[in-house]
Amino acid sequence: MTAVLDIAVEHRLGAFMLDAAFTSNGRLTALFGRSGSGKTSLVNIIGGLIRPQSGHVTVDGQVLVDTRRGIFVPKHRRRIGYVFQEARLFPHLTVRQNLLFGRWFTPRAPEDGADLPMVLDLLGIGHLLERRPAGLSGGEKQRVAIGRALLARPRLLLMDEPLASLDEARKAEILPYIERLRDEMAIPIVYVSHSAAEVARLATTLAIVDEGAVKACGPTAEIMSRLDMARLPGAPEASSLLEATIAGFDTEYGLTRLDTRAGPLQVARAGLVAGHRLRVRILASDVLVSLTPLDGISALNVLSGTIAEIGERNGGGAIDLRIDCSGEIVVARLTAKSVAALALAPGRPVYAVIKSVSIDAP
Amino acid sequence: MTDWLSPEEWTAVRLSLIVATTAMLASLPLGVGVAFLLARGRFWGKSVLDALVHLPLIMPPVVTGYLLLIGFGRRGPIGQFLYDWFGIVLSFRWTGAALAAAVMGFPLMVRAIRLSIEAVDRKLEDAAGTLGANPFWVFAVVTLPLCLPGILVGMILCFAKAMGEFGATITFVSNIPGETQTLPSAIYTFTQVPGGEAGAMRLTLISIAVSVSALFISEYMARLVGRRIAIE
Question: How many Cβ pairs within 8 Å bridge chains A and B?
Fold first, then answer.
């Protein structure tokens, strides 16, 4: 099976050297890294806005760039949708004309991919059709930009920090639409972000970009819990991603009970639906470790497991550990002193006491 | 109206409008092309082209007219070629007046259009490219509509310059009533004969009225277009 996306490029931009390679089959591949790490250059190369000095780009088995064979498919023949950080809607056209812009140029294929009513419904922008971009809010603009890219029938969708220029409320407005996009459309997405929360919520595959290189690429939960990744400058704090099912509610105290492979969790969060699946994220710094089961503590969530790996001490004296809880990995951040005092070592059974669980779902 | 102006004066007004309109419309495609080259192109000799376009603006009009006479006259290299191959004669014809007016108005037109092309956000063009538009279509449906206000301003400036062009016109195609005698030439002729003051004043007023109308029309159209494409 050929990868959806296979890229290996070298490109020098002034003093900055991009030398990045990764392959991905994920439905949503996140490129995560600090600003200036080369994420945007990488998607610009995939989209055809930058011609790399050497390397290759293959999407769905089709070679788009191969400098050795002299292949460079220009951007208008790639069928790769691009949602930019700023919406870049055409100001002289109405929302409807913006949305259908790509349709003028894509060969009239037998009805495949998104059509207008479906996209309007998916993004909730049906009421904006006759407006002009100047009159839209930031969130509306970005939704129209996503619809415009979808309607050009892309085989891959690039999103370059589509939420970065929006405030928190607007972000919360758009995130569910991107989730629906990921789950309901058969278009793989490459998503650039420097927000760990966005990545934890959206990504199926995560690539960490640092100083022009892809340092790691793999399933999101695996990469986010990797201790060596957490030490990279600008990397997200090590954290655990658990797939959870909503098991029930404790109405008296306003708690929701979740089942995960690692064990049951309770969260103080209302508005969830029983039976739904969601992803929870636990930061390493929100986890304590105890050698014995504890009585008389306020934390509700305690998972038992064995230590799988002890990381190296970072500059500050903190150490991250991976705890295997029935096959799921929970990451904890302790001080080097505690690790020594408790004589923690791989294979030792421990209890992970979780102070807070964040739920990245509507 | 007709008894207010003499038939000769009417002829001069009509001729001026025809000459200026022709000059404006004929130089428009070339003006957009050159403006695009100057705004976007990277090629050897760009500054030479830039200087060449601007030359009529800084040279004495009479010099421009004389150069046109040498080049496009019946015995001039270009004039002879045009006559031999297409039967076109420019010297001492209204078409020659239109050519002189176009050459003089060209730098103003190119400047206005060039500025507006430079102001177009290249990111929008990139976005259009990722949506499948090839470079020609990007230009036609994104770049061109976005610099429409600048094109309108360029056209009006060219038209106004053409209406007022005198030195190059009279040098190149002389001052023949009914053929090459435009408004300014007619006014000049009136000032050269005794008792011509009234005629000169009438044509002067018409000249002012035409210029002011052109200005208002351009303002109005630019605002109309500007409102439609209010930048995000």
Answer: 79
Q: What is the pLDDT of residues B183-226, one digit of tens each?
A: 999 999 999 988 888 889 999 999 999 889 888 887 887 777 76
- Beta-carbon separation of A84 and B137 below 8 A: no
Q: What is the pLDDT of residues A276-295, one digit of tens each?
A: 888 888 888 888 888 888 87
- pTM of the predicted structure, to 2 decimals: 0.81
| Domain range for B206 | 7-228
- Domain limits of chain A? 5-230, 239-359
Q: CATH: 3.40.50.300, 3.40.1360.10, 1.10.275.10, 1.20.120.1810. Which one for A5-230? A: 3.40.50.300
Q: What is the mean pLDDT of residues A17-44?
A: 89
Q: Are A102 and B131 in contact (CB < 8 Å)?
A: yes
In a domain, B1, yes or no: no
Report CB contact under 8 Å: B132, A76: yes
pLDDT digit string, tens, across residues A103-118: 888 766 555 556 888 8
If you measure CA to CA, which chain A residue comes closest to B228? A92
Query: What is d(CA A7, CA A1) in angstroms, rounded to the nearest whole number?
Result: 16
Total number of domains constituting chain B? 1
Residue of A nearest to B129 (CA): A76
Q: Name the B residues in 120-159 with CB < 8 Å from any A CB.
A: 121, 123-124, 126-135, 137-138, 141-142, 145-146
Split at pLDDT 50, 70, 90, the class of A255 is confident
d(CA A345, CA A236): 25
Q: How many CB atoms lie within 10 A of CB B67?
A: 18
Q: Which residues of B touch A106 (CB under 8 A)?
A: 132
Instruction: Give chain A positions within 8 Å (CB) of B227.
Output: none
Domain A239-359: top CATH class: mainly beta
User: Is residue A196's pLDDT more than 90?
Assistant: no
Tokens (6 digits) for B197: 């003051």
Give the pLDDT confidence score for residue A362 in this predicted structure: 44
Tell me if B134 and A76 make a contact (CB, 8 A cut-off): yes
- Provide φ and ψ at A250, rounded to 5°: -115, 90
Confidence check on the interface: ipTM exceeds 0.85, yes or no: no
Pick among B125, B130, B224 to test the A interface (most A CBs inside 10 A): B130
Question: Does residue A90 surpass a pLDDT of 60?
Answer: yes
Question: Does any domain span residue B2?
Answer: no
Mean pLDDT along residues A241-265: 86
Please indicate whether, in this complex, the C-beta atoms of A90 and B128 are within 8 angstroms of each other. yes
> CA-to-CA distance for B147 and B114, rounded, in angstroms?
9
pLDDT tier, B232 (very low <50, low <70, confident <90, very high otherwise) = very low
pLDDT above 90 as % of chain B: 58
Cα–Cα distance for residue pair A62/A163, rounded to 1 Å:
30
CB contact under 8 A, B131 and A91: no
Q: B225 CA to chain A: closest CA distance, Å? A: 9
Per the CB < 8 Å rule, is B130 touching A91?
A: no
DSSP string for residues in B44-76: TTHHHHHHHHHHHHHS-HHHHHHHHHHHHSTTS
- Between the two ends of chain B, the Cα-to-Cα distance in Å is 48
Angle formed by the axes of helices B46-58 and B7-40, to 10°? 160
